[in-house]
Every structure is written in structure tokens, then in C-alpha cells.
Amino acid sequence: MDDKADSQGTPDSKPKYKAWFQSIADKTERGPLDDLSYRASDGALLEVRHDIDELRKTSADEWKRIFKQRSHSTDWPYASGVWGKKEWVLPGIDNAHVVSMYEGNTNLFWADRYGRQLGLKDLWIKQCGNTHTGSFKDLGMTVLVSQVKEMIAKGKDIQAVACASTGDTSAALAAYAAAAGVPAIVFLPKGKVSIAQLIQPVANGAIVFALDTDFDGCMKIVRHVAENDGVYLANSMNSLRIEGQKTVGIEIVQQFDWNVPDWLVIPGGNLGNVSALAKGLDMMIDLGLIQRRPRIVCAQAEAANPLYQSYQRGFKGFEPIAAGPTLATAIQIGNPVSIDKAIDALKRYDGIVEQATENEIAESCARADRTGLFNCPHTGVALAALEKIVARGEIKKNDRVVVLSTAHGLKFVEQKVSYHRKELEGIDSAIANPPVELAADYQVVRDEMFRQLELRDKAV
After folding, report:
1. Residue 445: pLDDT over 80
2. Is the pLDDT of residue 458 over 80?
3. 254 in a structural domain
4. Cα angle 447, 453, 455; round to 5
5. 262 phi and psi angles, rounded to 5 deg
6. How far apart are CA 323 and CA 211, in angstroms?
7. Number of compact structural domains in the chain
8. Could you tell me how many helices (H) and strands (E) the chain has, helices first?
9. How far apart are CA 130 and CA 198, in angstroms?
10. Which H or E element spans position 31?
11. Which residues contact 159 (CB under 8 A, 6 or more apart)?
């Protein structure tokens, strides 16, 4: 018989759901979630695994009911889009140690006008940036910092939590660590993150190191710190992050009343987001909530495209690259940590990897913005990839497509201002829309107003 649920949507028989670390290569190598290691003995990444047989004792329909009842409630911590699925994420943690900003539950924007411009009838943008620190990284950081808080409460010697970042990860870590009262250390590539992204960890009290290197160089330093100096690693090679991030796929399907979209399009840098997306979908399939898989598109900037290059070779081998400068700074990564998990996910989900030039990124952002969006450049990478795949006819007119927007456009205001001033080097700024400066004279304003309206009519 299925477990019944109490008024908070929690199964009242209190089944002992279990989760553990397991090597992605040697499935017999396991460890507890409070283990201070991030790789297996053979160097393979660890992942969090769940007791699926125990979870199956609650029916698919009952899980759907529980998730719906918790969503947008005030019941701690289940109103969070992540912790509303606690049994699937971090089942053993004490609720008193959960550090949550009620992340997740972000809106789906029906991109009707933009979709019609591309020839699509059913295009949606998942606005992951409409969250506490303005990016999807909150989904993973709530899980990781909560586990750290519990580990410290149980006597683990953790001096601080640290990450390498190109902006959004550092913002999420700093905010959640501040809420938990845990010191945070972030390593950023000097001069390669936006002012908005830099000020977030500064304001939240993190120790911020701006290093004269790129993300991959920062990652090398933070890994040494984590291995040698009693500091807990918060980058996505720590699979606790993936457990939170996987809920975005579950949330999207739930928002469509458990109907699976045809396509999910996501930008990829360190590639934890790709494997996380697939992992959430896998759990829904394993537990009977859905019966089919969507196709996944991973979009990369041409300047930082090691996964795309591997895809072009049929995933026969992978070679790290030196990532070049790109507007999409958060995915300027040449040696992604989660490459193996991402390739596995794309193979299972009949995936496509596409790339976008800098001009394509900027212009796709601007075109979509003109239809009511306000996109970060990483979303622009995904939109540019979408436009190419639609133009090739691989995505059909009636397909339901969801693009995952990973961060809020307000984090990249300087970049947008430069676009509309036509100051971005190598970018056409084809639809720049700078302010029109005029004398405060009615006739002058009136004449220019009608001239501008006429220009808009011609452009349409």
C-alpha cells in the first residue's frame, strides 16, 4: 500500500530514505555524504545515489500530490523548489540544518512573440535567474551549504567553504554561507566578471581573491586548498551541488502538469548543469512519474567549446582547450570538470551540442530582449544555438521547447549598455536602441517621436 501523507505532504510512515556517494566508474565504491572527498580512489567523480526501491514504495501519483501540496507553501523547508523534493535530494538531513532562501519555483515565460519569429508555436524560457542571488546556482548551493552546516554541527572540522567561480557560483556560495554563519572563500579570475557579480560575494562578507588567471587557473588553486587546508570544496565536482540543480528538470515537467517537453536547451561551461538536468529526468522515469525522455541541447560559446569539439568527433575522445574571451563569461571554461557525466547524459538523451559566435550571442540576446525578455549572455548562447537548430529543421514548428535561462540579465547591465552604444568590439549591434537625446521642446520631441515610430514600422 502507498504511504499516506500528513498535512505537510510528508509520508506519515517515515520511510528511511537513504542516499550516499558512489563512484561513477566503480559502482561498488560507496561512502557517506559527510565524507570530505570529491573523487573515488581511482580518480573518477563521485555522484549521489538514492535508494530507488524505497522511494518506489510511494506511488508516482502520490509523489506528484506531495510535490504540488508543498509548492509555494509556508511549511519549512518544503516550500523551496529544492526542499519540496527533499526525499529525492538529501533525505537524511535534519530540517534544522537546512539553509534555504526558498529557491526554485521560478516561472516559465511563454516566449510567444519570440517563438513566432523563429517559427515555433510552443517556446518557453525557464527563468532560473528569478531567484535569490539571480542564478540557477542557488539550487545547488542550498544543498551543499545545508550539508556543511549539518557536518559542522556533528563535529566535522571545516574551516570554510570555497569555490572557483566566474561570478554566479561565488554569489550563491557567499549568500548561503552568510546565512549559515560559515566562512566563505571565493577565487575569481581578475577583471573577468561583471561588477554586479563581483559585488555580491563582497557584500555578503566572503573572502574574495581576484587572481590573475582564468577560471581553470582558479579551479586548480581551489582544488589544492580543498585537498590540503581543511576547506570544503563548493564547485560542481562536489556532487551535492548536482542534487539541488537536478530539481530544475523536475520542476519544469511539474509546471507542464507532468507532460514532458520535446526539447530542453541549456548553456554549458563546467557541464554540471547538463548532467544535473538529466539526473532529475532519470529519477522521474525510474519512479514512474514520466514515461518518455526529452532531447537535450547543450550550447557552448565558440570561444570555449571543448564539448562541442568532442561532439563533432562523435564523443570519441576529449581534449581540454584554452578557453578564449567570451561575452558568456560564466562558461569560459576549457577543461570542464563534469565532462564525463555530461557526455553520458547527452548520449542517453539523444543530445545535440551546438556552438555560438560572439556576434550570434549578442544579437540573439538583443532579439529576444525586444520581445520582453532580459537575457544574460549565457542564455544568449542557448538562444543562438536554438535558432541554428530550428533553421536546420531539427526542431519542428509544433515541438514544445524550453530554454533554461541561467541568470538574470541585470547582472550584465554594462554589457547590454555597451551593445546599445555599439561599443562591443567585433559585435554588429544590429538592433541597437540607444536613448535619443533632444532639447526639451514639444515640436522637436513630437517630430522625432513620429520619425522613430515610422522607423519601427519599417523594421517590423
Report:
1. yes
2. no
3. yes
4. 105
5. -80, -35
6. 16
7. 1
8. 17, 13
9. 18
10. strand 30-31
11. 183, 229, 230, 231
- Please name every residue paired with 391 in a beta bridge, in sequence order, or none if there are none: none
Question: For position 157, what pLDDT does the model report?
Answer: 93
**3-class secondary-structure state, position 456:** helix
pLDDT band at residue 36 under the 50/70/90 scheme: confident
Residue 44 banded pLDDT, cuts 50, 70, 90: confident
Residue 187, beta-bridge partner list: 164, 209
Q: How far is CA 314 from CA 207, 352, 372, in A?
A: 42, 11, 37
**The amino acid at 376:** C
Write the single-letter amino acid at 398: N
What the block records as the C-alpha cell of 396 is 519542428
Task: Mean pLDDT check: name the lowest of 183-187, 297-301, 453-457.
Answer: 453-457
Q: Is the dihedral of CA 113, 119, 120, 121 positive or negative?
A: positive
CATH of the domain at 294: 3.40.50.1100
Cβ(107)–Cβ(254) below 8 Å? no
Cβ neighbours of residue 72 closer than 8 Å, sequence gap 6 or more: 79, 105
Distance of CA 282 to the CA centre of its chain: 17
Residue 83 lies in a domain: no
3-class SS of residue 123:
strand
Of all helices (H) and strands (E), which one includes residue 308?
helix 306-312
> Which strands form 108-110's sheet, in the order they lie side by side?
108-110, 122-127, 400-405, 263-267, 295-301, 352-356
Backbone angles phi, psi at 100, to 5 degrees: -135, 145
- Beta strands across the sheet bearing 207-211: 207-211, 184-189, 160-164, 231-233
In the chain, what percentage of residues exceed pLDDT 90? 83
| pLDDT-derived band at 68, boundaries 50, 70, 90 | very high
Give the chain's mean pLDDT.
Answer: 93
Residue numbers of the domain that contains 374: 108-134+242-420
| Mean pLDDT on 343-354 | 97
- E strand or H helix at 379: helix 377-392
Pairing of strands 352-356, 295-301: parallel
Contact 162, 233 (CB under 8 A): yes
Q: Does 326 fall in a domain?
A: yes
* Residue that has been written with the C-alpha cell 529576444 in this structure: 368
pLDDT band of residue 237 (cuts 50, 70, 90) is confident
1 assigned to some structural domain: no
